[in-house]
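Ticket opened by: R.M.
Priority: normal
Category: complex prediction / small molecule

The reporter submitted a protein together with uridine-diphosphate-N-acetylglucosamine and asked that the result be attached to this ticket for the collaborator who will pick it up next week. Submitted input follows.
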Amino acid sequence: MDKFSITGPCRVMRGEVSISGSKNAALAILAGTLLFDKPVIIENLPRVRDIDTMLNLLKSLGSSIQFFDNKKTVKITKTKKQKQFASYSIVKTMRAGILVLGPLVAKYHKSISSFPGGCVLNGNSGRPIDLHLEALKKLGMKYEIKKGYIHAKSNGKLKGNVIKFPQISVGATEQLVMASILAKGKTILKNCAIEPEIKDLTKFLISAGANIKWIGKRTCQIIGVNSLNETKYSVMGDRIETGTFCVAAALSKGDLVIKNFDPKLIKTELSILKKLGANIKLSKNRIKIKGPQKIKNIKNITTKEYEGFPTDLAPQFMVLLCKANGNSSITENIFQGRFLHVMELQRLGARISIENRTAKIEGNTNFMAAEVMSSDLRASAALVLAGIVSKGKTIVSRIYHCDRGYENFENKLRKIGVKIKRLR
Ligand code: UD1
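Result attached by the on-call engineer:
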């Protein structure tokens, strides 16, 4: 298993970082290609492991995949050998594997899909898919669970309905948007998640002729169409990668230009970074960020659904707050168990205590290098960030988590002055 070796502290972080395509938007869009008879071209894919997993899943389902532009562009074409079996062996490492269920039932009226894997973020509660299944049932899908697989079918086309999600869920919203596209009649989805990745998915589907309208802040109306047209779509930039590099700059008195990302999509994160003392200048698709000489503390950051602060950036911001000039806290509202990285940060010298859903963080930490282990994707990024400002050589193991979601992470960091190596 690969490891990162980081020699810190990094004293000069400067230069340009080009943001890759959004992993989470791309995963949903790739699952959406199952709704098509005609070929689809997707551009700006990030070259990360989760995308390979989704492409392998599509291949196993019979889609033909051609790569262009160093594998950042794919042409996906339906074949005559299309199958409806999403195997555990492929989806076990990735939560987004469940997103093929809705499209398969919508298009082929049947599917056998494994329960998905992915990051362990929710303590003992796991990561349920009840919201997906209950809502799909309301469109006419019937299902049984046998040996870890969801055996689903519908009596012909799914049928439009009015569905109010009892809880906001990114995945369930994406699942239902996709399942409704080819359904008979009108579907109204209420209490939807409105993360930018969901808007990217709807833009992609609209580009192919889907009839989707946002008729309220969290209400989406979909009128079923018979088929989708050929389309070419470029995936949005990754807001979590953008946020991670903003934290890197703020942590190490860096001076970075972050390109290929629309700063309007991360207003909440940028306003917190400003409060912490970062100097930020925005222009179209570009963020110029200078880290402060002394990082200020902040009373509390609370993770919330978009447009709130994203849970996927909480571990990285925690590292920043460890270096703040005073105490701070982070309250995690989305995933209960999302504090596994705390123990590893403590090994580097962080002073953090957990009370229920809140991490209390003491500032002015002098991070000292150590061997640490990643527990999930965003935790691995947080450990790398802490390694960057730790004195000595930090070894981060289990970086396969990092490879699931960050494209070329070590090369991008090396280019801006970080001493980081991959040990194989
Ligand atoms: C997506 C993102 C993930 C991000 C999360 C929250 C992808 C591939 N992953 O995950 O990076 O951290 O949004 O922004 O896009 N829940 C249920 N039942 C369900 C579904 C969800 O109880 O059927 C709960 C979850 O356990 C969690 C909350 O709802 O507590 C929100 O989860 P959800 O928004 O669905 O996250 P994902 O789509 O899994």
